[in-house]
Amino acid sequence: MSKCSIGLLALSSLFLSSAAIAQEKIKVGVTATLEGTYTVLGEDGMRGHQTALNVLGKKIGDKELEFIVASTDATPDSAVRAVRKLIEQDKVQILLSPLSGDEGIAVKNFAKTHPELTFINAASGAQETTYVDPAPNFFRYNMDGAQWQVGLGKYAYEEKKYRKIATVGEDYSFIYTQVFGLVLEFCGAGGQVTNRQWVPLGTKDFASVIAALPDDVDAIYLGLGGADAVNFLNQYQQAGGKAHLMGGSIMIDQTILSSKGNAKNALVGTIAASGQADTWEDPGWQKFVKAYQDAFPPNKRFPSPSLLATNYYDSTMALILALRQVNGDLSNNQGKFREALAKTELDAPNGKIKLDSNRQAIGTNFVTEVVDDGKGALFSKVVKVIPNVNQTLGYDPAVFSKIGLPSRTVPECKKY
Amino acid sequence: MSRFVERHPAWALIAIIAIAVALWLIFAVWPPGLEEAIGRKRVFLNAVFNGITLGGLYFLVASGFTLIFGLMRNVNLAHGSLYLFGGYVGYAISTATGSWLLSFIVAFVLTALVGVLLQLIVFRRMEGQDLRQTMVTIGLSIVFADLMLWACGGDFYQVQTPNWLIGPVELPLITAVKSSGEPVYLRYPMVRLVIFAASVVIGVAMWLALNRTRIGMIIRAGVDDRDILAATGVRIQLVFVGVFAFGAGLAGIAGVVGGTFQSLSPGEDIRFLLASLVVVIVGGMGSIPGAALGALIIGLAEQLGSVYIPTYAIVVTFLIMVLVLAIRPQGLLARR
Prior knowledge:
The complex is a heterodimer. By secondary structure, chain A is α/β, with parallel strands linked by helices.
């Protein structure tokens, strides 16, 4: 039934578009991970995107925005393939892409081969994307993985009194960046990270990984997302694991907190940090949550938007606001539009966002703790709000550049 | 056994030493030097147990595959789709009724029905044409994969483990001795042990049925010579349908098992098809004990590999396959 009505809708929009041919369109390509391990993340990202369109509308002066969606699976080659298809087949002028860390690095490099187009990062958060050799036509309105961990290390050391921790993370750039942010702060405060385990994205069987978790640590940090995180928690529960947990930004997120089954209950009390917190009382955030909830029926969305929904919302908002500022003028290789983008300061639901000289977001970060709302639903509760987090995490740029790029072993556990 | 020792004394000695070392590694308390060299015993024991239980799952998928191949010489490359289909059915039933055991029964019956249809509509029409069958089943597996993607979406599903199976049990295997002299026992997820036990039971039952019953006799005769068997008056097509249904049903059960301790998603069909191909090639096409041995070897190789050489873990499985193909191309336990 729904297939049928979608078909009809597509057909009628085809007719409408030919009727309204006089109206000029601005074509925007969007990619999201609608396949593979991160499917749930991609789906909620698209919900955030839709929420932004509901709130802001698609009109740019007398022009209208047209969005074309392509699916990826969190691998860099799938992202480049999708972006290439959007550019070459669908002739899009602006890209809202991609979602995941490795995709981001690949798309940024690809962006350099199309200097006449503009790329707005949708949600990816690897540090390298905007830190190393940034592309002049690539803009990122979300913080990177390391920025999203600011505050967590200190909170774990000072408030929770954790001294030794171990990490388990997916083996790719975004999680490297997250662990980078965590280790820098936790070790800087005096803590020790004794063991870092890396598992391939899309791991199904975590039993051996769980067995290899050390016993002699105060907490275990989980840098997993999507189906990997759910698989891990399920098997962790079956193995009877009881350690204190700490979570990365896509681990402690509605994509996991509202997953089916009771394995997620292991997360109650887990501390984490992210670019948002579910229970933040800021009116802007509450308004966004309301808009998200109103846009979709309860069984087709999460109780509260995930980090991905928020990121897609913010990037769509930046796109529309900057386009409106130049009245949809994409002449001169989109020069005016890019100037407007660089200057755009977002009053985003998750705090004010502005861009630095690498076109990377400076924004607000949240330290959170997972709570049960009493009815079995889990939410991340605000513990601390940290405004104005920049990409060098408050370090002097010269010192920061000496730490090296996030990887399996970088940074070392010491005070820089 | 004794003949093997007489004919290959050197190999027998190596095998006995290897088994003794493995047993010592599992039962003895490790000296500190060894723990320093290759890590804690708990990790090793867990990897071994995970390998064996994963082998149980692989056996469930591969035994149906090898049974069908052994009798009918059908290479059914849509076997992975049957696995995934069974998993989705099991998920739907267990969420609708809350009964884990019922989901196995329904998954078995429905996948068996799909198997019957496959045999009647596809395989019977192209009997003896290996290449055509292979191409058609590849095509079918792609169609099935897209149909399931359409119906179930790209999301991940997990069959809920029943409450009485959640949590670990303590096994009488010592992993370490505390400084107070108190032994620490291995704790292992209950659900994996139960699933492994179930696959052993199914394996033994299958072996008994094949070797001790009349139907088993007919099937074995069919494996050796179909034409003569048909000439003796056995309704061979009925046997074919029955075996195909059973093999498919096993894949369905395996789907529910896989959905319980791992998860279900698009792409799993290919993964398990590949796994069962490797298992069957290592063990020997058409041999049930071969499937058991192959599943055990591949399961252990995957899990031990992922712990001790994580970067190359994926290669190990295929390395084993290449070795077997080079040294004993018919498979380890294949009959001549």
